[in-house]
Amino acid sequence: MIVFFRISLFSLLFAWAWPHLQFCAFACAQDASSDSPEMKLLLDRLRTGKAKEQIEAAVQLGALGPYAQSAIDPLVELLRIENPVLCHECILALGHIGPLAHDSADRLTGFLTSDLEMLQSAALESLRRIGTASPEAQIQIRHLCQNPNDSLAISAIRCLVMIAGQDNPLVQNSIPRLVTALGDDRDDVRNEASVTLVEIGAHVVPAVAATLSGNDTRVQLKACEILGELGSDAALTVPDLLKHLQDADELVVRAAITALGEIHAQPTTVLPALNALLKQKSAAVRIVAVRAIADYGPEAGDSASRLLTLLSDKSIMVRASAADALGETGDQRGEVIEALVKALSDGNAAVTLNAANALSHIGAPAVPALLEKLEDKSYRRLVIEVLGEIGGGAESAVPALVELLSHVGDDADLGREIFIALASIGPQATAATPAMMEILQNPTTDAAQAGATHVLARIGEKKALPVLRELIKVAKDQRVQRSAAWALVTLDPQNAESVKLAIPHLLNATSSDIPLARREAISALTSLGPAAIAALPYLVEHASSDPDASVRMESLHGLADIQAPPSQALPVAIASLDDPDAKVRNAARYLLGMLGEEAGAAAPLLRETLRRGAELDRVLSAWALVHVEPSKENTQVVIPLLLTELHHPSPFVRIETAVTLGTIGAGSKEVRSALEAAQNDADPRVQEAVIKALKTVTESP
To answer: How many Å apart are CA 611 and CA 695, to the nearest integer?
Structure first.
């Protein structure tokens, strides 16, 4: 992602040490440990405080989620007190702790028959979050599913979906009631019904699609939203949605367009209809139509000519959306590249940034035009950044970047961007090696020495190692120390002496106030595997509370790489399943899978994702599920899902699917047959993954 004047991963090298940040994006795992002063204070208030203090403590503990595992027993104990408000907050807190609070499920069951609706609802919500219920509880939940109170009944149905699965007969029989509730006057009831229908999955499609022909706009909007979230499972509703592109209500038109993009089906029928909407007077309709076209990616290549005309639209957001869509279609024609390079000078940041991102997606074919734009000083830094984003495909730009570096003078920011770009080009930037070695050995500034160090490490130039080993010992500048440490670990991770010298500097770098500096330090540390166990508390903290999603993701992967103890890794992995960023959630699923059966408590949450997650989410959840809860039943559940995903439009989904099938598909004739057919995939990366998976499946006993 291009960001104006970003401070990139190279900030690891240039940034001075900063005081350790007190992150507040999420609850800090270290502060929530059972022996921390903060946790002790909350537990003390929970046990001995007055009712108001206990309620406040329960609320705060619930906000900590899985990190409040040590509070489970005292929370359960307080459920004996006849204070409905306190009981309500304790019940909710146990639910927020989630699967780790599974031992409280029996105690929560008693509240399903409470005379107070708020306690019944809280118990249903918490049992759903915990993901388990006794046979007695399931009887009560089924009874509540038929309660005349719609709010309570829908909560019970949603709980039953989690506990018994979407194929449960009562769940299936409840679909009409849920669809009817989409027209309820209460927002909370409509929203809960909508979420529950999505969680049930493909079975709801006919009933939801039928509401599109009604006259209630609220229901139509919810129906479009549900069908869009169901994605390819709602492919059969495309004709119904197309009819509503001419609806008199613009909100319905926009909702139908969005759903069509998310469903991503029948491109030969849908794309012409979307293209026709690009001439609509309403800018909002044009914007949504462009975004839906972008959802089709390369399949929308024929739309490029129409999108090009929108780069001169009066609406800023139409122009910005068109630039983004051109990048998604992957059209590499000269006229597209020329138009996007011109759009860099649009004058509006949103358009400029989206054009830059589009050019980075196009990759190597855009490099010649970008090099011409490099002459424009006003956009030089942005062009350099785009070249870096292109990576190895920008190899032909290396000589120009090296030449420009020799003329930066006092412009440290420009110099930094050039070093960033060269480092991002990586091994393909070998033409820069002589210049970088010269700067490393005879630097004009500390920043330049740090920059050259990083570029050489990215290139993989081992000739720099002797200089780096000496440099880390004698350097006074912290930027140089950090860059040398990072380079030593990158170039020579097996050298125990170098690693010993580097680790303290890398641990220090995790406290930088610059996100990408933290991320790169964490990446370097965890590449050492279990040898970097000293990084454990840093990883747990950043995984749980870092405000930057890329750092949280890297930290979760790092916990898997260093083989973190389940007692430390499991709470943060479960908590991260609710992260707003999809990549972080998938990193959490990967960590759970690597923890294996020690993470069995997370199985209900993984099964939930199988029902309603995006395609890649479902693939990774399937992989994790068969590792945390290996069973014939789970394998039988996930294999049919994975077989369909081998045909997904995204090569990344197909790759992950092949890898997962290779892991779990031994002995399955269906898996072997599907992998054999997939060897002819158009993407060579997918072919490679399929061949490896097929070899594993074939050779397994």
So the answer is: 30
User: Looking at this protein, which amino acid is placed at residue 336?
Assistant: V
- pTM, to two decimals: 0.82
Angstrom distance (rounded) from CA 653 to CA 615: 7
Question: By the 8 A CB rule, do 525 and 493 touch?
Answer: no
pLDDT number for residue 5:
33
359/337 Cα distance (integer angstroms): 7
Buried b (16+ CB within 10 A) or exposed e, 372-393: ebbeeeebbbbbbbbbbbbbeb
Q: How many CB atoms are closer than 10 A to CB 80?
A: 8
Contact 174, 157 (CB under 8 A): yes
Contact 326/340 with Cβ under 8 angstroms?
yes
The span from the CA of 128 to the CA of 116, in Å, is 19
Q: How far apart are CA 513 and CA 602, in angstroms?
A: 33
Rounded distance, CA 302 to CA 380, Å?
A: 32
The candidate with the shortest Cα–Cα distance to 365, out of 318, 411, 397, 398, is 397
Q: Is the pLDDT of residue 330 over 90?
A: no
Write out the H or E segment, with its range, that includes residue 426: none
Per-residue pLDDT, 681: 87
Contact 612, 162 (CB under 8 A): no
151 near 191, Cβ under 8 Å?
no
**Phi and psi torsions of 266, nearest 5°:** 45, 55
Please give the structure tokens belonging to residue 223.
């129906």
Q: Which token pair is 481?
A: 């120390």
Which residue, 269, 325, 330, 250, is CA-closest to 293?
A: 325
DSSP state of 564: -
Confidence of residue 32 (pLDDT cuts 50, 70, 90): low
Cβ(154)–Cβ(193) under 8 Å? yes
Over range 603-621, report the average pLDDT: 83
The tokens for 524 are 């370097």
Got the DSSP string for 351-418? HHHHHHHHHHHH-GGGHHHHHHHTT-GGGHHHHHHHHHHHGGGGGGGHHHHHHHHTT-TT-HHHHHHH
End-to-end CA distance of the chain: 45
Q: What is the DSSP letter of 8?
A: -
Q: What is the pLDDT of residues 149-177, one digit of tens each?
A: 999 999 999 999 999 989 999 999 999 99
In the DSSP assignment, the letter for residue 548 is S
Closest by CA position to 42, among listed 26, 53, 28: 53
Q: What pLDDT shows up at residue 653?
A: 79
Q: What Cα–Cα distance (Å) separates residue 106 from each residue in 61, 101, 145?
A: 20, 11, 19
- pLDDT recorded at residue 638: 87
| Confidence tier at 668 by pLDDT (50, 70, 90) | confident
Distance CA 607, CA 613 (A): 10
pLDDT digits (tens, 9 = 90+) for 386-434: 999 999 999 999 999 999 999 998 898 999 999 999 999 999 999 999 9
Which whole number is the average pLDDT over 602-622? 83
- Please report, rounded to a whole number, the percentage of residues in the chain having pLDDT higher than 90: 77
List all residues 6 or more positions away from 394 whose beta carbon is below 8 Å from its beta carbon: 364, 367, 370, 387, 388, 421, 425, 428
Q: pLDDT tens across 427-462, in order?
A: 999 999 999 999 999 999 999 999 999 999 999 999
